[in-house]
Amino acid sequence: MKRTVFTGAATAMVTPFTQDGLNLEALDLLIDYQLEGGIDALVLCGTTGEPSTMTVEEEARVIARALERANGRVPVIAGAGSNDTAFAVHSAKQAKSLGADALLLVTPYYNKTTQEGLVRHYLTIADATDLPIILYNVPSRTGLNIAPQTMKRLAEHENIVGIKEASANIEQIVEVARLCPELSLYSGNDDHVVPLLSLGGKGVISVVSNVVPRLMHEMVQKWLEGDLQGSLELQFQVNPLGKALFSEVNPIPVKTALRDMGFDVGPLRLPLIDMQEETRKLLLQRLAELKLI
C-alpha cells in the first residue's frame, strides 16, 4: 500500500483577502478554527482558495503561513495544478521548498488534453518531486475527466498516492476503486462522503468543513469506527448546508458564510462577485439551523 497523506476530513481552505492583498492574520484564525474542530488536514490554494487570481508570491505566502500556523499538527497540502505542465512543475517545487506535506493536482483545464496527454502531464510533475501527490478529478470545472484506465496507469508511479474524485459519476468511481486499490480515494463532493467511504475511501477534501469542521471530521471518523448509522445521519445533516454552499459558484457562498460567522475573509476577486440576495437568504437559514450564526 502506498503512503496515506491523511485519513478523515481535509478542508479546502478559502484565502482571506484585503482590497489589495492577503489577510494572513485572518488565515491564522481560520486555521485555528479548523484545528479546534478536529480537522485532519488542510488544503491551501485549491479551487476554494481562488488561486486563479493569486500571484505566485501570494500562493507561496499563504502556504508558508499555513505551515507555520499548523506547526506539524496536521498535514498541509498545497494546490499546485495548472494547464501548463512546466508551471505545475514550478509550483510543485515551490511547495516542496516551503515544506508542504503533499500536493493536490487538478487536471489541465481550458486547453485540456487527451488521456495520453494527461499521463504525460502528471508523470512529468511526479518525476520532478518526491512529495506525495493527490490527483483531482473535477470535470465540471475543467472539462476533462481522468478515465479509470488512465488512473490505473498513473497509479503505477510511486509518488501518485491518491485521488480526489469530484466527477459525481459513481459508476466511474467504483471502477477506479476496483482498478486502483493501492490509492487513497477521497470524495471531492461533500454530499458523496458516505458513498465513497463504502468503496474503501479514506475521507473527503471538503468545502463544507470550512464552516463545520467538526461535523465533517466526525462523519468520517464514525464510519471508520464502525458506526455506519451515525456517519449516515451526519451525511444527512450536512447535505442541506452543502446544497446552500453550492447554490452559487464555489467559493462565493462559503466565503459569504464565513463572513456571516464573523471571520474577516474579505472580498472575492473578480470575476467572482458577491452572493445574490435570494440564495444568501437560504444560506443564512441553514447557518441558523446549525446555530452557526
Task: State the helical fraction.
Answer: 40-55%
Structure annotation, total helices = 12
Given helix and strand content, the structural type is: alpha/beta
Query: How confident overall, as mean pLDDT?
Result: 97
User: How far is the N terminus from the C terminus?
Assistant: 43 Å
Poorly predicted parts: none
Estimate nothing, just give the exact number of structural domains: 1
| Radius of gyration over C-alpha positions, nearest whole angstrom | 18 Å
- How big a fraction of the residues is strand? 5-15%
Shape: globular
CATH class: Alpha Beta
Main sheet characteristics: 8 strands, parallel, barrel
Q: Based on DSSP secondary structure assignment, what is the total number of beta strands?
A: 8
CATH architectural designation: Alpha-Beta Barrel
User: How would you write the strand order of the largest sheet?
Assistant: 1-2-3-4-5-6-7-8
The ordered H/E elements are EHEHEHEHEHHEHEHEHHHH
CATH superfamily: Aldolase class I
CATH topology value: TIM Barrel
